[in-house]
Specification:
By secondary structure, the chain is mostly helical. The chain has one domain (24-132). The chain is 70% helix and 3% strand. It contains five helices and two strands; from the N terminus they run H-E-H-H-H-H-E. It has a two-stranded antiparallel ribbon. The chain is elongated and about 45 Å long.
């Protein structure tokens, strides 16, 4: 992949764990990176609104996914991804987490709230499993 150097220059190491193996093709990577960017943006926005101390960390991770996306997007477009698709993928990631957060915080049904909390945590964990963040 011609953008691998750019990815490493961004300070990230890709993790190919059993939990979340990095997809083989650039168009699949672009989708994953864009969705994770949207997921983390929604989470960080919610955290900022509740003054959660983890908001800056999740915002930094969202920015790292944008770097990864920028690195693979030219190859993904060469593989047929239409211009603007990355924004639709980001939107899907955002909507997914925003919906879970709404259910978690506003549902009158404890089971729905618990399931939403678990689902949101799983989606965010899937993203975190893709990258290894450098120690700060």
């Amino acid at each position: 992949m011609r953008h691998f150097v750019a990815i490493l220059a961004g300070g990230l190491a890709l993790s190919c764990t059993a939990a979340q193996a990095l997809p083989a093709f650039s168009h699949q990577q672009a989708e994953l990176f864009a969705k994770c960017s949207g997921r983390l943006a929604a989470l960080a926005t919610h955290q900022r609104s509740t003054r959660d101390a983890q908001a800056p960390e999740n915002e930094r991770l969202r920015a790292e996914f944008d770097v990864l996306l920028s690195a693979v997007l030219p190859d993904a477009q060469d593989q047929g991804v239409p211009s603007g698709q990355e924004n639709r993928w980001r939107s899907q990631g955002w909507s997914e987490i925003a919906g879970f957060l709404a259910d978690q915080h506003y549902s009158f049904d404890a089971t729905v709230a618990d399931n939403a909390r678990d689902a949101a945590a799983l989606r965010i964990a899937e993203c975190r499993d893709v990258v290894l963040m450098p120690e700060t």
